[in-house]
Design brief:
The protein is mainly alpha-helical. 72% of the residues lie in helices and 0% in strands. Helix 1 runs antiparallel to helix 2. The longest helix is centred in the C-terminal third of the chain and has 23 residues.
Length: 57
């Protein structure tokens, strides 16, 4: 039996990824991990904003 892929809106997937990166950054004790998690969070936030502002197809 094959499973159908879960279909989530792009914005929802990006928000989940951003939330996970924020959580990782806040839990890590390593300053480099915290900085990289912050960088990922910022990039995902910009991407999420661009997706929301894009014209629908």
């Amino acid at each position: 039996m094959t499973r159908k892929p879960l279909k989530l809106p792009t914005a929802a997937v990006l928000k989940l990824a951003k939330d996970a990166a924020e959580r990782l950054g806040s839990l890590s004790k390593d300053p480099q991990v915290r900085q990289e998690a912050l960088n990922v969070t910022d990039a995902l936030q910009r991407l999420l904003r661009a997706v929301r502002e894009a014209k629908p197809r």
